[in-house]
Amino acid sequence: MTTSPITTSIFDLFKVGPGPSSSHTIGPMKAAFDFRQRLAQLPTDIQQRADAIHIHLYGSLSATGKGHGTDRAVVAGLLGWQPETTDPAAMLKLLRDPEVLYPVSLGNQTIDVGAAQIHFERKRYDSPFANTMVLKLKSGEEVLAEEEYYSIGGGFISRKGEPEAGTSSHTVPYPYSSMAELKEHLKTHSISLDELLMANEMALTNRSRAEVNQRIDQILDFMHKAVRRGLKHKGVLPGNIRLNRKAPILFQQAKGMSHPGAALRSDSFLIFLNAYCLAASEENAAGGIVVTAPTSGASGVIPGLTFLAKHHFHYDRATMRVGMLAAAVIGFLIKHNASISGAEMGCMGEIGSASAMGAAFLTRCTQSTSDIGPIEAAAEIGIEHHLGMTCDPIGGYVQIPCIERNAMGAVKAYNAYLLATSGSASFQKISLDAVIKVMKATGRDMSTKYKETSQAGLALSATEC
What we know:
Blueprint lengths: L9 H4 L2 E3 L3 H19 L3 H6 L2 E7 L1 H4 L1 H4 L1 H9 L9 H6 L8 E5 L2 E5 L4 E3 L11 E8 L2 E10 L5 E3 L19 H10 L4 H13 L3 H24 L14 H12 L9 H18 L3 E3 L9 H11 L5 H21 L4 H4 L5 H15 L6 H13 L17 H19 L11 H14 L20
Parallel strand pairs: 2-5
Antiparallel strand pairs: 1-9, 2-6, 3-4, 6-7, 7-8
EC number: 4.3.1.17
Pfam families: SDH_alpha, SDH_beta
Cofactor: [4Fe-4S] cluster
């Protein structure tokens, strides 16, 4: 495992933006916006010579970028749009007509960008990451400026030659890069997990405790708004699959089971949970505003679990906050020592990570103290039972199997929490660090066909849809 300390903020892990894919939508939007900012700093004479901007997409950005809306995201970023403030309806209209051009500001002039300037490259590109995009400012055939970006999962990006965006140069009072190191801090400093994570977050973001808590509340609100929208919206999702939304139907079914006089069924709360997870995930598939948790493709698991925790278990804000911190630390460890990217890890990097994080959330919420043992056990169980899961979206859309997989990941998270809190957490033989190491090796050994390229698995069932 890497030895550099984790310097990722909870608010970089949980980001707000439009669906359907953090690595294909939020990441490319941020990269294009960064390119726009760099072009604005070029000397005036270079700006005046420019006559075109070209975008070259490689890896799964090319293979499934159309279905994921990568082309629209790039145009949005070049126009100066930011993920959290993007109007989803306006974004869906971008490039609807391939003949329409969009003026990108460059000094005292504008350069038109449209579908013809976005190239979905099929050739192999020598790059350290699966999702690579190269943006070029040109004058005729001459390249005036060029930047290479990598979208590495969860909306995180890295520019060639620079550290990954979302990592901080700030030092933290309790540096760790593994669960073993984290537990050593807890023991040596006699500090609780809640306090350690809060201290590090305050150091990374220069926010006060109250400001950190306020932003966690806002993130939860964004999650729950996505759930509520999804429970109301009916109809067919965008794209060629013509997939019908199911969340409103399940929600009504669950309410019918809980209605006074209805026959009592012990599984009714699971149907509520499924409805909540499908609701957020269907909103993501429709391009709505969601929270990367840790990715957009997995943006139904934790929102569904937290919505259930708030409205069925009636946890207060303080409990929900410490649960979110516990979820975040699991996400940090996975991202730091393996990956949360479907293009790197398959779906175990997305739903597997979300399920482990959700299990940690539930476990922490039910404890009177932040005992790390059950939290680690729950997360380990959550990952262990997603090892090797493929990422094989039909048609490149984040719909089949992605939407139902969010619900299944949440149910697995709930069961992992039950297993970890049964009083046998100390009996767990596999550590979280060990299973993350296995996860990384599994992702490395998986065929590229099963990692978000739509070249194998369920993706080949497109003709049946």
